[in-house]
Queue: 3 jobs
Job 1
Amino acid sequence: MNRRFFLGLAAAGLAGSSALMLGGNAALAKSVDVSSVLRDPEAPVGGNPRGDVTIVAFFDYNCPYCKLSAVDLARVVKEDGRIRLVYKDWAILSAASVQGAQYALAAKYQGKYVAAHNALMRLSGGHRSGAEMLQAIKASGVDVNRLQADLSAHGPQISALMKRNHAQALGLGMNGTPTYLIGDFRTSTLDYNGFKQAVAEARRRQAVN
């Protein structure tokens, strides 16, 4: 990933304003509140909650490109130690995708969202069923009985969060998964070096603003 890449992704105002403008589109800037993207209290957060750079990840558990980049993203977040990672379950590919997102978000209520997320991202291929996803989550150590109970008890909150994620993605003009917001930039699939360079550039821009 080079400088030309960043020039194509520049976005104004992500870190410090109440409206997000991507690609210079004023209509999008008026339609999306940054705080709702970065600070939704229901959205799971990983990495360092007090990190100096935030990555917002929009993904689908049946998206092979999401799975490809998730490994490198997790590695960068772990090695860096100063990245706040916001998970945005954006289930757009199939009914099973919706089920997977619901299961992962229900696991949050027993403190196991990241475990469930990682388990689903490790499933190979792009057409896994809801039953296969549930089995993978169970194998990761999540209490499935409690998960089902939490899914019933917190179903309205989970549904509302997924609808907000969808509205945010559309409001920002996203057209597929994965999509990542990294500091002032928006991008799709990145590899390990790509994520590292994007984070470094986000920090550099924050330092001069």
Note: Strands lie at 11-12, 21-22, 45-47, 53-59, 83-89, 179-182, 185-187.
Job 2
Amino acid sequence: MQPALKTINATGKHTASVIFFHGSGDTGPNVLEWVRFLLGRDLEYPHIKIIYPTAPLQKYTPLDGQLSTVWFDRKSVNIAAQESKKSMSRCYESVNKLIDEEVANGIPLNRIIVGGFSMGGALALHTGYHLRPELGGVFAHSSFLNRGSVVYESLQNSKAEALPELRMFHGERDTLVPQDWGQETFETLKKFGVKGTFHPLRNTLHELKTASLTDLQKWIQDKLPPLENQVQNKL
């Protein structure tokens, strides 16, 4: 089933897209409101569409099998836990459909960025470094990959000439997803050729912050400039 979407459309000609995945138990509209509250406005651009999808309602093992809006199931929230390949593969179908719809609208893969918060950031890492390495960039906030992740296997066998640039943020006081897990994920991805930056956030729990969103807003602009700027730079 295709997840429900909340979209902030480009205010001008749409030439790039960002897909922002929420954390476990949340929804796309909630993340949009969270971003809006912290920035005092929407994450909005003249040429970039921002998509906030909502995960399907499904049984979630860390909540004793209760239904929750989660992208995938997992045995526990722990870097040492095993991934559920069956659950991940179902999730990949939804993500691929989202991306394919943007491509069908004329947006090339290298003009699409994926990212997310917590579980959504983990999904973005799977998307950019396992499913679609041709994407324009990946961001992950307060996120991690399991140590035996299929993402690492995929990168080890990758023949991609270039991988999407990575922007990671993590609260130093995060008790739900310790910063060490995020740092370890980043360092492991670097070993497999991923280039990017890891930003520890002082006095920050498991949460988005105005400072990280402001940084992210500029990074997205730099990675997905207006097409007329690219033409001028080549002249």
Note: The CA atoms of residues 176 and 206 lie 6 Å apart.
Job 3
Amino acid sequence: MEKIKIGVFGFGKTGKVIASEFLNDNLFTLVWVVRKSHDDHHKYASRLLGYEFDAGEIFTGEDIGEDFFLERPVDALIDFSDSTGIYLYKRAAEAGITIISAISKYEQEELDLLKSFAQCTTVLYSPNITLGINVLMVAAQILQKIAPHADIEIVEEHFKGKKEVSGTAQKIANSLGLNVEEHLNSIRVGGIVGRHEIIFGMPNQTIRLSHESISRAAFGQGAIFAIKFLIGKPPGMYTMETIIAEMFRQNIPVY
């Protein structure tokens, strides 16, 4: 089977872990990595991450010209950089390259641009691309429909240095129709990567749905899951939630 060719935007803490996940999976070939700085320009991500082979040549945004995506073709690109990365891969969308964005927040103009790419290729946008958190969100929405009168609280826990409220927790609140200020509780301690819990309070019982990211590798595994699903799909806008919801529908047990 021919390997799936991948390009990655972003080579910070998360980007490096994501690149490593693709390097470790025999289904994929990491073709290139685009980063902001000129550090390690034209070196190979694989070598920098300790592998003894060449893969993932490193470029900067300045290297992306008219023919970049034609000269270095990939099947999909994964964006773990920042919101400005979206302005670099219009040509990729036009070339039919699948785009997966895991950027935490876009301005409306940027989001509109990303949606416009879906007219000619498959585009997936999920600020938190981990498989588990999206299963959690879909399950919570189902449970809310089953028990619409339950009290619901959301608890998000992250590392001590994270100042802002979790974007994922806010998205969970919005998906459940909850006021963020009233129903979202934040905890900052130690080096927690990320933990989200949704608590449903009902008379005589409590249901807790929780997800914890042990490592940033969970984001890479989510991206791999998304690519496998999107290969061969028609152009359009997708999210991890819609993929998981479809799988829920296909796998509901029959009694």
Note: Residues 152 and 178 are 8 Å apart (CA to CA).
